[in-house]
Structures are given as structure tokens and as C-alpha cells.
Amino acid sequence: MSKNERRKICSTTWPGRHDGTFAELRKLLDEKGVTAPVVLEVGPGAASKYLAGMLASGDGEKLSPLANRWRAVLRNVDGLIRRIPNCPLHSYEPGELLKFLPAGAKLTVADISEPVIRAIEKQYPQVCARVIDFTCETMDEPVDVVVCFCVLTRAMRPREIFENLYQSIRPGGVLVMDARSRKSFSTAEHVLEEMTGHIWRKPE
Ligand SMILES: C[S@@+](CC[C@H](N)C(=O)[O-])C[C@H]1O[C@@H](n2cnc3c(N)ncnc32)[C@H](O)[C@@H]1O
Question: How far is the CA of 42 from the centre of ligand 1 (A)?
Fold first, then answer.
């Protein structure tokens, strides 16, 4: 992927977006007695440090229409601010996911954006942060859990990314993803059993 194509990829996000699903994932891991899962989080995104504290937390449905609109405005402003060279970034998702994972979990966070990964390295030294383009790369060793929210719906080659994510899940492992991406970009060859609205299990 060219530098220009990379620049066009949006990575703005806001806090607490997937807490409900992360809680469901923890419940599932506890039920299965999994205490040390190997977890891959793809495309956590980030916001500029200047606006990170101003973006309202949680699902759009839980905000008033005005608060929702205001957050959308701030996100657009954030997109502009982030064009400033070396703009400092803040990434929420790895910390939010870590809060819900068992203490023995090993978390790798991957994003195509180098600035996002550099910010994650500073914020979360306990996490393995890697620049990976899942359009053409996959994990060397399949993992127990792949988390990937709101990446494919904005990507240029979402089907390739879905295939590489699927290959990154071990048999019996789970995929945690927005339902729209799962529905739009998987094929009949991607065998996945539905556990909840956002979690699917790959058969053994
Ligand atoms: C819109 S943000 C989503 C942020 C967050 N997951 C959320 O749900 O709000 C999309 C993220 O996916 C990353 N991304 C886009 N294409 C990618 C690819 N091919 N491989 C890895 N990461 C990618 C972007 O850099 C960005 O950080």
C-alpha cells in the first residue's frame, strides 16, 4: 500500500465504544476456563491528545441526538488536527480491552498506522505493538482471540483483511468484530459459529 493510500485511512475513534462486547468476551473466557489467552487486537485507532479528553464515551444510541452530533463534529476536527506533523495521539482501545482480559492474557496490538502504534508503545508498555497491514499480512502463530472493530468497513480491500484475520485465529479460537464487517466481508469458506452478536467461534 502506498504512503498516500495509508494517509487516507481514517483512524479516529472515541472512548468506551466496545466495553459491552469486551465484557461479553470476558464472560465467555471465564466460562471456558481460559486464564491466559493470546489476544490480537487489530486497528485500535486513536484520537489527537488535544481532543482525546473531550470525546464523549460509549455508544451513539446512549447519547442525546445533540451530544451525538457534537461528538461527530469533534471527530471531524480531530481528523484535521491529526494532519499536523507529529501530532501527539491517544489510543483508548488497548487499555479498555486490557481491563476486561484475565491477568494472564498476552495482548498484541496491530495497526497499519505507524503513529498509532508509536502512541500505543508509549501508553501501554506491557503490550506488544506492531505495524501490520492485514491486507497482505497475517500472524505467524494463530491466536486464541482476534478483536477487530470498525476497520473493514472503511478499508480499501476488506475481503483480503477478513481472510488474513480468519487465518490468524486458531481452531477453537474466537473472532470479536462489528456485525456489519462480519456479514459483509466473509464468505461461505469462513466457518464461524455465532456466540453473541459480536463474537464468533472458529470450529476445532
Ligand atoms: C476507524 S479506526 C477504528 C478504531 C476502533 N477500532 C474503533 O472501533 O473505533 C480504523 C483503524 O484501522 C486501522 N487499519 C485500517 N486498515 C488497516 C489494515 N489494512 N491493517 C491494519 N490496520 C488497519 C486504521 O489505521 C485505524 O487505526
Answer: 7
Which helix H or strand E contains 166, and what residues bound it? helix 158-167
Q: What is the DSSP letter of 96?
A: H
Helix axes 19-32, 93-100, angle to 10 degrees: 30
Residue nearest to atom 12 of ligand 1 (CA): 43
CA of 34 to the centre of ligand 1 (A): 27
- Residue whose C-alpha cell reads 500500500 in the numeric block: 1
In this prediction the pTM is 0.92
Sign, CA torsion 184/155/84/118: positive
Please state the length of the chain. 204
Angstrom distance (rounded) from CA 186 to CA 182: 6
Domains and CATH numbers, the chain: 3-46+89-201 (3.40.50.150)
Tell me: the pLDDT tens digits for 146-203? 999 999 998 999 999 999 999 999 999 999 999 999 999 999 999 999 999 999 999 9
